[in-house]
Amino acid sequence: MSRRHQNFRNYRQEQRLTQHRLIAAALFVLLMAIILMARLFYLQVIEHDLYQTKADDNRVMLVTEPPPRGLIYDRNDVILADNRPIHSLTITPERVDDFSQLKKQLSGIIEISDAEWEDFDDRRKEYRRPYQSLTLKSQLTDEEWAKVAVDLYRLDGVQVEAQLTRYYPYGEAFAHAVGYVGRITSKDLETVDRQAYQGALFIGKTGVEGYYEKTLFGEAGLSKVEVNARGRIMSELDRQNPTPGKDLHLFLDARLQQYAYDLLGDYTGSVVAIDPTTGGILALVSKPGYDPNLFVRGISYDDYNVLRQSKKLPLFNRALRGGYPPASTIKPFMALAGLEYGFASWTERYFAKGYYQINPDGRRYRDWKRTGHGWIDLERSIIESVDTYYYQLANKMGITPIHNFLTRFGFGQSNLLDLNGQSNGLLPSNEWKKAKYKEPWYPGDSVNVGIGQGFMVATPVQIASATSALASRGHYFYPRMTNTVGDEPAVFENGLGDEHDIVLKDQRNWERMVVAMRKVITDSHGTARRLQGTEYEIAGKTGTGQVFSLQEDQEYDADSLEKRLHDHALFIGFAPAKQPKISIFAIFENGGSSSKPADLSRALFDAYLYDDYPDRYDYLKGNKNEG
């Protein structure tokens, strides 16, 4: 059987088939080799530049280095915002195998709060560069630094790093003016260049720090580094050093600022002082303040809760956002409006009773002097602050001329050039009341506005800048904080002009109004006659702002009222009256008597004009002042 089967086998055919298979396999291998070589040629030669770039992108990374933040100085080179070196405890998460074990180890060495660990864990979950260290505890004491240094060898991923942090040496008196920096949040990163701020810890939040963030931050440095497959930096290939932020020199006078803050005593309130020749803010005080250093590294919940729940609202910037009735400080502007539109004259006499009525049988609008002032003229209405004169003037004018004229002085608008968050206040109009209350404007509304009450609300900065325009006889500067940026004058980009003139039909009215305001101090019946006796002339106007409305025949009795219902005490003034160098607005909330802000202003005039500060403020004197 096997012999018969052997006769059927064709060895030649099997040999040819094997040869064909070998040839086919060889051809297939050759074809694959050709394809592989062609692909290799395509990748290595034709697409070399593309894939070389991609390989470098995986191997080479750009790492940003935050620049040193610019410093903030007052007008005499006193540093108001500094950079202070500190030592911080940092952790590189990629180098830690067991965080629970690390937490136990560190807790046995120094005290680390639960809030610090929670903050660290939150930032660890956010996007960051691989092997970038994160701060766990900042501002280590020398003792803490020493304790950690002893055990660093057994704490994988833990380092003590030297860092620059923002420091505000003069605390709460400057908080609302200078502002503060705080930790960068995800919300902050939506408004800035993420690449530039990679690795940065802080960003300006409020005040000058917030407004000039881009200028103070500078330009981040760039390092081209080689990394391994896990993203860890192996070597530095190239480096571009960061450009430090530019320094700011403010118009602010540190001694004047601190002195004004202290003179407010236990009262809440605000003081704004302006140089009428430049519009530069010499003092911007809101009391109470707070320690801005609390916010730099992240304020604790307990500390923030204390500030937030305080009835005195220390976080509220009264100078920019406080809405107050300007009260009788509005009378010089009202008088100028009456003169401008022909509703008043310097010679016309008016018999001032103790009240004013729109209609013979209507409501009686009371004067502060119940017995009345008798026959007066416009000048006397300023000297004695005659309410009834301005009741009748406002009623004759109506709200439209009042609104149009006061707008020229910056009322009802945000006029501050380089601080964010200023309130517009409220300069009412017929249109505003229709939109707000669906009611027409009544004569009684005008009567109340005539003495700076009713619907009208203004901020301290607005009243101060209007006073500065009055001091300069109509030369209006938009108020500003910053004098120079680096070595160049500050340039503002918010659409407001640097200055403009308020031109009256009769320019002599400026000087006559200054004379009337001077007599507020020098006249025996002047409401600020307590300021007599200075070697220079002061022009001023007192004001008493009602916190609540009295009924027609109701008497104001401060002794029977809670402190929070006492009248606000206000004062505007400038000195020397002929060629003013400083104008001031001051308000004591619920201060009652306008003597308080008048006395404060007198003290500030003496200090600024004659360098007559108490010795305890010498530490704020500065290099320029000493020279």
From TrEMBL:
Q: Quote the gene name from the UniProt entry.
A: mrdA
Location of the Penicillin-binding protein transpeptidase domain:
269-596
Q: Which Gene3D superfamilies match?
A: DD-peptidase/beta-lactamase superfamily, Penicillin-binding protein 2a (Domain 2), Penicillin-binding protein 2a, domain 3
Pfam families, per database record: PBP_dimer, Transpeptidase
Q: Which organism is it from?
A: Marinomonas foliarum
Question: Entry's PANTHER family?
Answer: PEPTIDOGLYCAN D,D-TRANSPEPTIDASE, PEPTIDOGLYCAN D,D-TRANSPEPTIDASE MRDA
Superkingdom: Bacteria
Q: Which UniProt keywords apply?
A: Carboxypeptidase, Cell inner membrane, Cell membrane, Cell shape, Cell wall biogenesis/degradation, Hydrolase, Membrane, Peptidoglycan synthesis, Protease, Transmembrane, Transmembrane helix
Sequence ranges assigned to domain Penicillin-binding protein dimerisation in this UniProt record: 65-237
Catalysis performed (reactions): Preferential cleavage: (Ac)2-L-Lys-D-Ala-|-D-Ala. Also transpeptidation of peptidyl-alanyl moieties that are N-acyl substituents of D-alanine
Q: Which HAMAP family match?
A: MrdA_transpept (MF_02081)
For molecular function, the Gene Ontology terms on record are:
serine-type D-Ala-D-Ala carboxypeptidase activity
Which pathway is this protein engaged in?
Answer: Cell wall biogenesis; peptidoglycan biosynthesis
State the EC number(s): 3.4.16.4
Where it sits in the cell: the answer is: Cell inner membrane; Cell membrane; Membrane
Q: Would you identify the family this protein belongs to, as annotated? A: Belongs to the transpeptidase family. MrdA subfamily.
Q: Where are the transmembrane segments?
A: 21-42
Do you know which SUPFAM superfamilies this protein is assigned to? beta-lactamase/transpeptidase-like, Penicillin binding protein dimerisation domain
Q: What is this protein called?
A: Peptidoglycan D,D-transpeptidase MrdA
